[in-house]
Write a structure and sequence with these properties.
By secondary structure, this protein is mainly alpha-helical. Helix content is 48%, strand content 8%. The protein has 4 helices and 3 strands, in the order H-E-H-H-E-E-H.
């Protein structure tokens, strides 16, 4: 199992969902909210306060950063886009690696059949 870098706080479930949303491309806050809702088939729906508090926390931890809108994206001066930083990608990979270890163990106990979507 991979160990967390010293001093690095674990990701909350909300943090993890935001970093996953930004792993493909930069998004604005509402785009992050939509991505999470679509990816979880509506099981996770973040309120604006929860979303923007988490975005601020991830910025303070240098895991995400503001960025320019993607090429061809309609620009709205009220929208602030975010991208995953290298440290954010490392934190995301570490968290997913820990989850993978847990899922593998669950499968070894026949609690989660092989090939079943998680």
């Amino acid at each position: 199992m991979t160990s967390r870098a010293p001093g690095l706080k674990p990701l909350t479930p909300v943090d993890l969902h935001i970093l996953l949303a930004l792993a493909r491309s930069p998004l604005h806050g509402y785009g992050i909210k939509l991505d999470i809702s679509e990816r979880t088939r509506g099981e996770v729906s973040l309120g604006s306060g929860t979303l923007y508090e988490a975005i601020q926390r991830l910025e303070e931890r240098n895991l995400i950063a503001p960025t320019a809108p993607p090429q061809g994206e309609e620009t709205d001066p009220r929208r602030r886009y975010y991208r995953l930083r290298a440290a954010g990608e490392r934190a995301l990979r570490e968290a997913l690696g820990r989850m993978e270890t847990v899922v593998r163990f669950g499968r070894s106990l026949d609690l989660l059949p092989e090939g079943r979507e998680v």
